[in-house]
Amino acid sequence: MRSQLAPQGVEFTRVSENLITARRIARGITFVVLVAAAAMPLLLRSLGAWSGYPAWLAWLLPAATLAAVVWAFALIPRQVRAIGYAERNDDLLIRQGIYFERLMVVPYGRMQYVDVTVGPLERALGLSSLKLHTASPSTNAALPGLPATEAARLREQLTARGEAKLAGL
Predict the structure, then answer these.
(1) Beta-carbon neighbour count of residue 148 at 10 Å?
(2) Are 121 and 144 in contact (CB under 8 A)?
(3) Does residue 84 sit in helix, strand or coil?
(4) I want to staple 31 with a disulfide (CB 3.0 to 4.6 A). Which of 37, 69, 94, 148 is the partner?
(5) How far apart are CA 125 and CA 120, in angstroms?
(6) pLDDT over threshold 90, residue 28
């Protein structure tokens, strides 16, 4: 499926498929806690501690929460596959989003520094995250899920291009 925002003829490079695993692990922990909290009224009603709580609501709350969690979990692969970047002569394009597409254009001359971070889960999966910092504090140009070698290459490439653009001013 082609993005409505992407310029013609631009080929985007996708992030690593390992990001799917990383997001499933991170969100899985949150989802388990969420479903357990939603099931509390059912548990308390079953133990007789909250007998006045309506049975239909005691069952509906964890069932609806579980359905939402399964839906969110199923979307993770599509969300990850929608993240991509493209290096052009004057700027870097970053795209993301399924329902709400977003295309960021970061001119090399506007970059102040490039930040590469690696958390414990990312390190275990061989991933890194790259964040581009510009003079605007509202810039949120980030690329999660890059292979560590690609993140290092991209950091050096973007830094060199940024310095070259600034030197030409």
Answers:
(1) 16
(2) no
(3) strand
(4) 69
(5) 9
(6) yes
Round to whole Å and give the CA distance between 37 and 43.
10
φ, ψ (nearest 5 deg) of residue 46: -65, -35
At 104, the amino acid letter reads M
Q: Could you give the CA distance from residue 130 to residue 142 in angstroms, rounded to a whole number?
A: 6
CA distances, 44 to each of 31, 53, 57, 109 (Å)? 20, 9, 13, 60
Residue showing tokens 């070698």: 149
Place of tokens 């999660």: 144
8 Å CB contact between 69 and 34: yes
Neighbours of 163 (CB within 10 A): 13
Model pLDDT for residues 103-126, shown as the tens digit of each residue = 999 998 888 889 999 999 999 999
Instruction: For residue 107, give the DSSP letter.
Output: E
**Owner of token pair 């939603």:** 38
Query: Which residues lie below 8 Å from residue 122, measured CB to CB, with a gap of 6+?
Result: 22, 128, 129
